[in-house]
Write a structure and sequence with these properties.
The chain contains 25 helices and 2 strands. The chain is mainly alpha-helical. The chain has one domain: Amino acid/polyamine transporter I (Up-down Bundle), CATH 1.20.1740. The protein has a two-stranded antiparallel ribbon. Helix 10 (200-235) runs antiparallel to helix 21 (415-446), helix 18 (361-381) packs across helix 20 (400-411) and helix 20 packs antiparallel against helix 21 (415-446).
């Protein structure tokens, strides 16, 4: 079973690479005219294979079983609800303590690990703060009305507990190599955690499936899609970027390579600088618009709450936000998917619960703060009611970024340039973090000696994402990212008694004054 999954992963990876390379070559050359018919036919067959796979995965992930709620939405939501109540809402009780940890109050330089608590958080945020915050929110508001914002915030609070669970487990079961580098992530707590209660084979199967999904998702949604959207947003500034898309692709590939070759330490150093800057820049611009209409805020908040419970808002907000957002990262905080566990497993700490509390702030920053800013800007400017945007959104067209850009430009002429820069930074940071996630999963499947091959392939996919449009390949990778939730949440719930015991033991020592501080 494990060997079959490994071979399947290699097949899809090589097939995707050949598909994109050959497709690019055939589209851009005339000297192959005599032989491209056969190649194009094979590429069409391959594209249809990816399309059929996507359709199959959609039927499973978005199956409603008469409930009106897609299966993947139900799994993510119920997982967060279960963790929240089972842990006694520690995600809220421990909020202030988590801020102290992030500030470095408990950073022991002698603790095992590669990066600080703050760097682990920014590395995880760099993968989640992105187009979902800019485009996904705008689409959600246009489809579900102002009430959609309320449901996003509600799901974020439950998502905090999901992050708390997975990142506590990440430290409990990470592997520290003799040279100090960390191998961690859901694969290790699925295999070893479930193994500790006599379910090793079941855990190993879940771990291999999770690793397979992570690698596939890293090449597509965490890489090609980001490069593709970078080109799209730059194209709104000047058409020259699309004319010379290969130059953009090369530059992006070089910038990504410069960081990922250095591993998680360099990724942590870069994200700890880039993420705060891009968040402050985006939130700061949003706040200028919001504060200039300060008197409207109470009315807007009342509208958000009122429409959250109307029939239209319930469908558009609770379901529309999730269903639409799942396809293009409206689940921007990735709570429940297990992806953040990769970054947080490398943190310098010997306290699993402590890192879990750091991680749980991610959904709050990502959704409650940044997504709320986007939503309020769309409401204040009224662009979400624009008939053109509304019509395109209802047809499923990717108008979110354009809608947000229009909202910014309406009150701050030229603000689209700031938004374009923010999108570029968001996409870049997402790529370098997802490269680390995919590499850890690749290492689990094929061993440490093969990681250089993964890095080379990842850099190649950055370039290909900028110069090709592969709907089926990207759709396939998006489905793989969503699929990560199944093994992660299933394993996490089985291991939840261990998580709870670890959290309670840590919390009792904290309130008992037993924790050593360093600042």
């Amino acid at each position: 079973m494990h060997r079959f999954i490994r071979k399947l992963l290699l097949f899809f990876t090589v097939a995707t690479l050949l598909h994109t390379v050959a497709g690019t070559a055939c589209a851009g050359t005339s000297w192959l005219d005599g032989s491209t018919e056969w190649i194009q036919a094979k590429l069409t067959d391959l594209d249809e294979l990816f399309g059929a796979t996507v359709n199959l995965m959609v039927q499973v992930l978005f199956a409603e079983f008469g409930t009106g709620i897609p299966l993947i939405v139900l799994v993510l939501l119920l997982g967060g609800i279960y963790y929240s109540f089972f842990f006694g809402w520690l995600s809220l009780r421990g909020f202030r303590h988590s801020i102290d940890i992030i500030r470095g109050k408990y950073d022991d330089p002698d603790d095992p690990g590669e990066i600080s608590h703050f760097q682990a958080l920014t590395s995880a945020l760099s993968a989640t703060v992105g187009l979902g915050n800019i485009a996904g929110v705008a689409i959600a508001v246009s489809l579900g009305g102002p009430g959609a914002i309320f449901w996003m915030i509600v799901t974020a609070f439950f998502g905090m507990s999901s992050k708390l669970a997975s990142c506590t487990l990440a430290i409990m079961y990470r592997k520290i190599h003799p040279d100090g580098h960390i191998s961690g992530g859901p694969m290790y707590y699925l295999e070893n955690g479930l193994g500790s209660i006599g379910l090793r084979e079941f855990g190993r199967t879940l771990a291999v499936i999770f690793a397979f999904l992570t690698v596939g998702g890293s090449f597509g949604g965490g890489n090609m899609f980001q490069a593709n959207q970078t080109l799209e947003i730059l194209g709104t500034i000047s058409p020259i970027f699309k004319t010379y898309n290969w130059v953009v692709g090369i530059v992006l590939a070089i910038l990504v390579a410069m960081v990922i070759i250095g591993g998680i330490r360099r990724i942590g150093n870069v994200t700890s600088r880039v993420v705060p800057v891009m968040c402050l820049m985006y939130v700061g611009t949003s706040m200028v618009i919001i504060l200039s209409h300060f008197t409207k805020i109470p009315e807007l908040i009342g509208t958000i709450i009122d429409q959250a419970f109307s029939p239209q808002a319930f469908y558009g907000g609770f379901l529309g936000v999730m269903v639409t957002g799942i396809k293009r990262a409206a689940f921007s905080n990735e709570a429940g998917l297990g992806s953040a566990a990769f970054a947080h497993s490398a943190a310098k700490t010997d306290e699993p619960a402590r890192e879990g509390m750091v991680a749980m702030i991610g959904p709050f920053i990502d959704t409650v703060v940044i997504c709320l800013m986007t939503g309020l800007v769309c409401l204040i400017t009224g662009v979400y009611t624009d008939p053109e945007f509304l019509s395109q959104a209802q047809q499923g067209k990717p108008v979110g970024a354009a809608m947000t850009a229009a909202a910014f430009d309406k009150f701050i002429p030229g603000a689209r340039y700031v938004l374009a820069l923010a999108v570029v930074l968001f996409a870049y940071s997402t790529m370098i973090s997802w490269s680390y996630y995919g590499e850890r999963a690749w290492e689990y499947l094929f061993g440490d000696g093969s990681t250089l091959l993964y890095r080379i392939m990842f850099v190649c996919f950055v370039f290909l994402g900028a110069v090709t449009a592969l709907d089926n390949v990207l759709g396939f990778s998006d489905m793989m990212i969503l699929g990560m939730a199944f093994p992660n949440i299933l394993g996490g719930i089985i291991l939840s008694p261990q998580i709870k015991a670890t959290l309670e033991e840590y919390w009792n020592r904290l309130i008992g004054g037993e924790m050593k501080t360093y600042k």
